[in-house]
Amino acid sequence: MSTGFNFAGLMVCRISLGAFESAFGPGIPIYMAMWYTKHEMGFRMGYWFGFAAVAGAFGGLIAFGIQHIHAAISDWRLLFIVEGIPTICLGLLTIWILPDRPDKTSCLTEAERRLQLERMNRGLRADVGRTINKAHIKAAFKDWRMYMAGVIFFGANCSLASISAFLPTIISEFGVTDARAQLLTVPPYAVSAVVLCLVSFASDRLQSRGLYVALASVLGAVGYLILLLAAHNIHVRYFATFCITSGTYTIIGILITWFAHNLGSETKRATGVPLYQAIGQFGSILGSHLFPASEGPRYTKGFAVSCALEFLCVLAAIILTVSYRIDNHQRDCKYGKVENTDATVDTRELADKAPMFRYVP
After folding, report:
1. How confident is the model at residue 123 (pLDDT cuts 50, 70, 90)?
2. CA distance 104 to 130
3. In contact, 307 and 155? CB cutoff 8 Å
4. Burial grade of 171 (CB within 10 A; 0-12, 13-18, 19 or more)
5. Contacts of 255 (CB under 8 A, 6+ apart)
6. In terms of CATH architecture, what is 32-123+135-353?
7. How far is 21 from 3, CA to CA, in rounded Å?
8. Predicted local distance difference test score (pLDDT) of residue 240
9. Could you give the CA distance from residue 83 to residue 59 in angstroms, rounded to a whole number?
């Protein structure tokens, strides 16, 4: 994008970026589910997605530094170059340093492969080899929970896009320079990364996801309520941004962990995760249009819509966790209680509908 000199060129670059990036978000939880059990996924996904918050923090620092560089090219072009080159280099290195699926990677010995597959058979039967079950693809599209997850992802993405839009505006009310305002965007993102990791660890220990998604949504909603009600107290409004970033990043981090296991099979996971994330990306489109400059600095409409969507996330999370608990209870009554949650369950045919499969609520 640093090479764009007109609107058409920038649009081609941006569309290409979105097209290539679209597989990254769904691909990571699918990949991680090949290597980590349901008791390990939350914390791993937490600090993986926590780096998105860290990127938000460092983005402000990098922008601050670039504003003080007197280069021969525009600041925004230099920013794209500085942020783009490391990404390209790391992407190329990933081809060699990131292991393939456990049963295929050359990074493990035969004994280590067997051990890893044994680990992955805790709670479900891991797929071996690149298999596609067409019935599981249809099941993913028919599963109402995918669309409920899409609602949560939509609300969280709208909030995430919104905070990027209005955070600099709120900070500018402090009467600081633009460069210093960039520095003040760092703390909310840094705190959200810590909160996400702590909550993800707790969700692993308690094997509960929906409760934490609901609580994180409440935290984000409270942040937006503060922005609506405290229109003139800049310190309280700045505190509200901590609530919003911490709540929103936690929602997304826990949600992608939640469905990485609860879909049962690799095929249904590879279909369902991109499905609900695709629905959720429309939230980013909405969020980027909720805060026109003409409505600043109060942005009543934008804050109200974002707050309502956060509460919608609370409702959707409660519905999901209750439905999972009901299904688990019904299967316990019909097939018997699962005493050993690490016991192998064959999910290759029925995915998450296997009689002895139990959801993480």
Report:
1. low
2. 10
3. no
4. buried
5. 149, 152, 153, 156, 209, 213
6. Up-down Bundle (1.20)
7. 19
8. 93
9. 9
Q: Where are the domains of the chain?
A: 32-123+135-353
Q: How far apart are CA 196 and CA 190, in angstroms?
A: 10
**Residue 126: pLDDT over 70:** no
pLDDT at 129 over 70: no
Tell me the angle at which helices 210-229 and 300-335 cross, rounded to the nearest 10 degrees: 160
DSSP symbol at 163:
H
Which whole-number Å values give the CA distances from 269 to 3, 265, 352, in the listed order?
Answer: 38, 6, 10
- As a whole number of angstroms, the distance between CA 305 and CA 327 comes to 33
Distance CA 167, CA 18 (A): 24
Give the whole-angstrom CA distance, residue 217 versus residue 309: 9
Cβ proximity of 134 and 349 under 8 Å = no
Q: Is 71 exposed, middle or buried (0-12, 13-18, 19+ CB in 10 A)?
A: exposed
Amino acid at 186: V
Helices assigned H by DSSP within 109-233: 110-120, 134-142, 144-172, 178-184, 186-206, 210-229
Query: What is the rounded distance in angstroms from the CA atom of residue 32 to the CA atom of residue 260?
Result: 8
Q: How many CB atoms lie within 10 A of CB 173?
A: 14
